[in-house]
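Quick start: load a record and inspect it. Here is NRK1 kinase:
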Amino acid sequence: MKVLVIGLGGVTNGGKTTLAEKLKNMLPNCDIISQDDFFKPESEVETDERGFKLYDVLDALYMDEMVTSIHNWMKSPASSDVVTEEPQKTCDNLKNIYILIVEGFLLYNYEPLNKLWNRRYFLTLPYEECKRRRSTRVYQPADTPGYFDGHVWPMYLKYKNELEENPSMQVDYLDGTKSQEELLSYVYSDIIKELNKLRE
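Running the structure step on this input writes:
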């Protein structure tokens, strides 16, 4: 039994969850872990001097729990609620390979996770498009006025710069303004190449 761990990271509202769900439907033995499931409760998230809740930082998440969940999945993927029927045209020789897609906005800036990835993807968006998409979403708690410019976007740039300055980090940057079909087609083909390598 072999496992393939795929990171799908990047900007808020970049299309990570949609892409992960579509890939799950196309790939054999595929499961998703979402970073959004590991947010601390609001009472435990720090507030800065402007009154902004600091959600877009690692401290707002139970990262240890997330790492544990991924390790547990890797130890026994077959016992998770993975769908094992063969979707589309994948062949019998992929039956013993399990795929985990981990999606979230802060995946590659946390050292314990960086040993786990087989492939890393990072969705980007220009400022205006990201702000427009973010304004159409409803969050709990809701974004306060100025929150995007004061916290969300600066944190995205900070963590993206950290990645770009790390030469050992192999990340495939994806343009989130491309159509979902185009992004899906690219990432799916790339994962199939990885699966074929694992099989050899």
